[in-house]
Amino acid sequence: MGCFFSKTTPGAGRETAPPSRPSQPSGEGGGVGRCWSRGGGKEEKRRRKGEIAVAVAAAMGKPKPGHALRAQLGWPEWLSAAAGDAIRGWTPRTANSFEKIDKIGQGTYSNVYKARDLMSGRIVALKKVRFDNLEADSVKFMAREILVLRSLDHPNVIKLEGLVTSRMSTSLYLVFTYMEHDLAGLVAAPGIKFTESQIKCYMKQLLLGLEHCHNQGVLHRDIKGSNLLIDNEGVLKIADFGLAAFYDPTNGQPMTSRVVTLWYRPPELLLGATFYGVGVDLWSAGCILAEMLAGKPILPGRTEVEQLHKIFKLCGSPSEEYWKKSKLPHATIFKPQQPYKRCIAEKFSDFPPSALSLVETLLSVDPDERGNATAALNSEFFTTKPYACEPSSLPKFPPSKELDVKLREEETRRKRSSSRRGNVGDDKKRTQAHDQGIRAFPAPEANAELRPNINRRRRMPRPNTKSKSEKFPPPHQDGSIGFPLNTSRKDPVSFGVPDTSVASFRVKPSSPGISHSGFLGNPIAARRRTAGKAAVA
């Protein structure tokens, strides 16, 4: 049985607390319909999944009030038991009223599809999330994302329109408004160069969306180009709240520092901060502004140590007063031996003066000096000519997302490799010239939305040793298990060398007499040489 939930009353998306009484099932299918899956499936497979769902629900204890009614409406046991508050007040609809059109995004635990609502004819985006073994903590993380989305209602924040699920499936589909582009895809698209007025338009919408999120007590914690969606009318919407969290500035609670994609992660998180606020999103917004002006990412680090190195070289190292007041867990580890001078003005001397001033503010090493979204909106950048243009006046671009750019680059590489001619030297020159024109994106291990990267240091002991899935802490323990404090890092990290990739974490050798450093040669040739030496001996 598939189901889709929708708002029962106008303005429900603005409610911080969902209504206490769910509405009756709508007449649109009554919540009963064909399960939307890859195939029909066998009865035995369905029975086993049903048993797993019942076991998970039983492990969670006594059902909460309203659980039975939600089950009657079509919600599966595993979702109703773990995410009852998130789905309260919504009515289901059949899943077979959607038709997949194309895959438009992908991640480790989720895929995004373009689809058609067969009842309204509208085009929507479906985000499919998979839950391995129906682990309750993983479901709770998704429930938090749903609760966050339901608490937000703003033109520049993506709108959650419903959920599709099945009693016999461990997958969940989130239904969103379809957007034709994302900012990363547009910035990387060949031939697209934003004017100052257009950049102001996009930045204004981003800051308005962040202002609303922060006023509602929500930190996004993963602002980057691919999470800023744009439709054909030029409207920008902040999307992907999978790492978002509620926060109270008057009553700070610890949160994890393992958030925000590496290139857009502020220095305090790289230094292990667990108490932070709106400054983390504003730093990311500053990176986005500078990226649009420069036409490329400004801090493309490959590791956390290298990322801090790049930040300190551009933005200057923190003052002694900041080191003392912040009391960051890894201050003694990552503090540079010699202070760096701030050089943003010299590095970006071709930026318009008002834009440079805002970049300077948003990329302050001290988060207290970044201000807030409202202050940024009132800055000289938006109050001087050329003013931000209207979204409707923006050019109509062909559909372009980060995934499209990656696919184009892969196709270009395939064509280049299949048509290689001439000598090796010429081929190397062509390869280097081509690679210089390719738009860089964060490596998969640097993306905050990929859960292995975020959660590999948030694992909890597994009660079932046979399970291959990871245990994640519940949302209320979000910050208590961030960067591993017991990591062996006795020696200070030197930042006195040029930009080179260095490992973020020290690896203990498997045996004291073997070195794993140095050039990574051909392992097959190495084995042959070893075998040859053994034969001679």
UniProtKB/TrEMBL annotation:
- Biased segments, Basic and acidic residues type: 399-413, 423-437
Report the GO molecular function annotations.
Answer: ATP binding; RNA polymerase II CTD heptapeptide repeat kinase activity
Region spans: Disordered: 1-49, 392-489
Protein name per UniProt? Protein kinase domain-containing protein
Q: Which UniProt keywords apply?
A: ATP-binding, Kinase, Nucleotide-binding, Serine/threonine-protein kinase, Transferase
UniProt GO cellular component terms: cyclin-dependent protein kinase holoenzyme complex; nucleus
**Signal sequence interval, chain numbering:** none
Q: Which family does it belong to?
A: Belongs to the protein kinase superfamily. CMGC Ser/Thr protein kinase family. CDC2/CDKX subfamily.
Organism domain of life? Eukaryota
Record's keyword annotation contains Disulfide bond: no
Positions of ATP binding: 127
SMART domains, A to Z: S_TKc
Protein source organism: Stephania cephalantha
Organism taxonomic ancestry? Eukaryota, Viridiplantae, Streptophyta, Embryophyta, Tracheophyta
Has the keyword DNA repair been applied to this entry? no
Which residues are in the Protein kinase domain?
A: 98-382
- GO biological process terms held by the UniProt record: positive regulation of transcription elongation by RNA polymerase II
